[in-house]
Write a structure and sequence with these properties.
The protein is α+β, with helices and mostly antiparallel strands. The chain has 22 helices and 26 strands. A hairpin with a 5-residue loop joins strand 13 and strand 14. The longest helix has 72 residues.
């Protein structure tokens, strides 16, 4: 069924600002709700982080509404909406900022909601200075946006949007990298984490509006190259800025990354070991159930099954009849009171502890079985040993496995340092939830905290698959940092020694170089005058040649650039003299271009002809360029002459010829009506597929398909309808088969399908049934509904034959059988007494 769709309007470009506006409104409402009802999680997002104040939340709400109200076609109402919202935001931000600047209190901090003094921050409820600056800049953007046809206003708006995003991103990086100076301009003025996120969203929303605004186009004089340069510059700036901040943070946090990696690997190993142990035990139990279900139908075989040696797989097996009476028992059950817990993603399975971990299965069999209930215990010895002897990160290394009992309480299995089951609070009702709280909540990560022993630890927490279990792998901080601290001291001493030696070596080399420079300065001035005279003569000659010619020195610096070369690239000679010629080649093609000859620049002779590279004109346009390079020596210096030819038309002609060649090849090998392979191409592809199947020892199926009652379609609906039906049948066959299969039209209403790379001989029947069902869908042809059907005959390699002709012949015989049996079905080739 076709959907009635419309082209997106211009307002569709503003979906991102509307999304950002909605986020800001949601953030504002959440924080205000938290402040009114004293819900800490809504005001600080994460425990221990700074709260967002009411004025900040209110301004975010107004900014979100202003973003949504902005459109391409500014009506009077919408104009007033974001204009007056901007004025309101500006007023609140200026009043808040004036208090910090002038050291006064005007009551704006707690005008709506009273915030108690916590004796730590003397200015409760006050908007941070950097937050106030961001809102002032945002309000100016809202106010100035209608007047940005003036270039000065456009420049101000661009700069302010950039600064809003920059300050928000800086604060966000400060929280992420634990660099407080990025979000705290002084002790009592700190931008909150969610405030920083809101500023980033506000900057993105304003930037998206501005980049699609008509005034921005006028600001750039409608030049796309300026847009690319501006956006690239912004991206480069932030890439360099973020890299610098991350590099700075890495110096102080690389120890944390190393510890996290070690703990994460140990956690992953323990978690995966438990999952693998459970899966292995689950598989053994399923095999046991299959044997019981098969043998329970026969008393003799049932007795044999009960006498199997189960000691290697189970420590306990109990079988019950329909009256829940025990009729067979192997081993001993665990004592009562053993810790047990059901696994969420495993039905009828429990994890137990009694001097080790066990997996208990308890299922009911169908009513028609002699055995109605099966209970087993499987010891998880590997996981038990792993938890009890895990000292990979030190003697204090411990892995704790728990399951949630209630909202703030968890039952924990014994661990290496606590050899008995225990109960732990999760700390969810406090400002500092414990690591196990996050793990049972489905989160993974690293956390520094004080454990139940009162020791400072670092632990990696996370869920164990989807079992409802949480796991924490922790170690005392002092154990982990001991080796890192020693390695760091050694590295610092080596680094300082290397720097001192490098400084000494540079000083030793530069001092004699300065003397040589002073002595050769006068000689260089004389040679420079002679060189310029020679260059002027050479430039005059090159300027009248009809091909692009440039000369460069050994470093690739342009010495001359004739008129034809200037026409090719769009640069003047003065713009390129002294510049590297490599800037005329896109960076992605440099290795194939001028850096190619740089690898051989030290050879005695260098000559390269007709090198094809990708050039770049002054306006940014890329074009194919043919380059010939020859070497000469002038006044004892090596100079390279480059002959440049624009081969854009040549490449276009070659591309057109190649396109026509491929089109002719396709027409020669494919059916013009359906686009499927014709008989010639099919025979080639079939032979290739069969040879591959022989080499790979795979199965292959040949499906001979014939469209049922196709002549009646032509007679009743016309040949156009028949052709349309053939096309749709061909499309269906392509859709119902894999990309590795071969589909061809070999006759009027006859198709052949080769199913390749079959792993099992029965796979062919699955595909055939899928084709029969897929073809039966009603089709609308020329306003009339037709329900097509197809008959299929199939032969299999190597079961039926081992050559193409015989396989086709046998498939055709099978097709005849399918038609004889009523059509709209398939038949596999069945040999008869008369078959060869």
């Amino acid at each position: 069924m076709l959907l009635n769709t419309k082209l997106p309007s211009k307002s569709a470009y503003f979906s991102l600002p509307k999304f950002c506006g909605a986020l800001l409104i949601l953030l504002s409402l959440s924080v205000i709700t938290g402040l009114v009802f004293k819900i800490t999680i809504l005001t600080s997002i994460l425990p221990g982080y700074i709260n967002m104040v009411f004025n900040t939340a209110f301004c975010f709400g107004m900014a979100g509404i202003a973003l949504i109200s902005l459109q391409n076609d500014h009506s009077t109402y919408r104009f007033r909406a974001f204009f007056y919202l901007g004025l309101l935001i500006l007023t609140i931000a200026l009043l808040s900022l004036s208090q910090s600047v002038f050291g006064v209190s005007n009551g704006i901090d707690q005008l709506i909601i009273k915030v108690p003094n916590d004796h730590i921050n003397p200015y409760p409820g006050r908007m941070a200075i950097n937050t106030a600056f961001c809102f002032i800049m945002a309000s100016i953007v809202f106010i100035f946006l209608p007047f940005t046809r003036q270039k000065w206003a456009s420049m101000i708006v661009s700069l302010l949007i950039f600064l809003i995003f920059f300050l928000g991103l800086s604060a966000l990086l400060g929280y992420l990298l634990k660099l407080s100076f990025l979000f705290s301009w002084y002790r009592y003025s700190q931008m909150a984490l969610h405030t920083a996120s809101g500023m980033v969203a506000l900057g993105i929303g304003l930037g998206s509006i501005w980049f699609h605004h008509k005034s921005f186009e006028y600001f750039l004089n409608k030049k796309e190259d300026l847009r690319v340069i501006l956006i690239s510059s912004i991206i480069i700036f932030f890439a360099v800025y973020i890299s610098a901040i991350v590099g700075f943070a890495t110096i102080s946090q690389d120890n944390q990354g190393l510890l996290k990696s070690l703990l994460a690997k140990s956690f992953s190993s323990q978690s995966q070991l438990l999952l693998n142990s459970i899966d292995k035990s689950d598989l053994k139990f399923k095999l046991l159930i299959q044997e019981i279900e098969l043998s329970a139908l026969n008393k003799d075989s049932f007795e044999k099954t009960l006498n199997l040696n189960l000691s290697s797989n189970f420590s306990y097996v109990a079988l019950y009849n329909s009256s829940n009476r025990l009729i067979y028992q192997f081993g001993n059950p665990l004592p009562k009171g053993a810790m047990n817990t059901p696994l969420k993603s495993k039905q009828n399975i429990q994890l137990l502890w009694s001097d080790g971990f066990f997996l208990q299965h308890d299922i009911q069999l169908p009513a028609n079985h002699l055995i109605r209930r099966v209970v087993t215990l499987s010891p998880l010895n590997e996981f038990t040993i792993s938890l009890s002897k895990n000292e990979s990160l030190g003697t204090s290394n411990e892995t704790v496995l728990c399951i949630q009992k209630s909202y703030d309480v968890a039952n924990c299995f014994p661990s290496r340092l606590t050899p008995h089951p225990f109960v732990r609070t999760l700390g969810r009702n406090t400002d500092t939830p414990r690591a196990m709280s996050y793990a049972l909540f489905g989160k993974s990560g690293l956390l520094n905290y004080v454990d139940y022993r009162g020791e400072s630890v670092i632990g990696f927490y996370g869920p164990v698959g989807h079992l409802g279990l949480g796991m924490v792998n922790k170690v005392d901080t002092r154990d982990l940092y001991q080796s890192v601290r020693s390695a760091l001291l050694e590295t610092l001493s080596i680094l300082i020694l290397t720097i001192l030696l490098s400084i000494g070596f540079i000083y030793w080399q530069i001092q004699p170089l300065i003397k040589r420079v002073v002595n050769s300065e006068q000689t260089a001035l004389k040679q420079e005058a002679l060189r310029k005279e020679s260059e002027n003569k050479l430039r005059a000659i090159l300027g009248h040649i009809g091909e692009g010619i440039a000369t460069i020195d050994e470093a690739g610096i342009i010495q001359s650039f004739n008129n034809k070369a200037q026409l090719i690239f769009g640069f003047t000679e003065s713009e390129l003299l002294g510049q590297s010629l490599i800037q005329l080649m896109p960076s992605i093609k440099r290795i194939l271009g001028l850096e190619y000859y740089s690898l051989n620049i030290k050879e005695n002779t260098f000559n390269k002809k007709d090198i094809e590279v990708l050039g770049q004109r002054k306006n940014g346009e890329e074009f194919p360029l043919e380059l010939s390079i020859s070497e000469l020596t002038h006044e004892g210096k090596r100079i390279f002459t480059l002959i440049l030819r624009d081969i854009t038309q040549k490449k276009a002609l070659e591309a057109e010829l190649e396109k026509n060649r491929k089109l002719l090849m396709h027409q020669a090998s494919h059916d013009p009506l359906t686009g499927l392979s014709n008989r010639t191409q099919f025979e080639h592809d079939f032979e290739t597929a069969l040879n591959r199947a022989k080499r790979s020892h795979e199965y292959l199926a040949v499906l001979f398909c014939d469209l049922d009652h196709f002549k009646e379609v032509n007679d009743q609906h016309g040949h156009n309808a028949g052709d349309l039906l053939l096309k749709q049948i061909a499309d269906s066959l392509r859709y119902l088969t894999r990309a590795t299969d071969i589909v061809a039209r070999v006759g009027g209403d006859e198709f052949v399908i080769i199913l390749t790379q079959l792993k099992h001989i029965n796979d062919a029947e699955v595909v055939v049934e899928k084709i029969l069902r897929g073809i039966e869908n009603p089709l609308l042809l020329n306003g009339k509904t037709i329900t097509p059907s197809i008959s299929i005959g199939a032969s299999l390699y190597p079961k039926d034959a081992s050559d193409t002709q015989q396989l086709l012949k046998l498939a055709d015989i099978a097709l005849y059988s399918a038609k004889q049996n009523g059509r709209n079905q398939y038949a596999l080739y069945q040999p008869t007494k008369d078959s060869p």
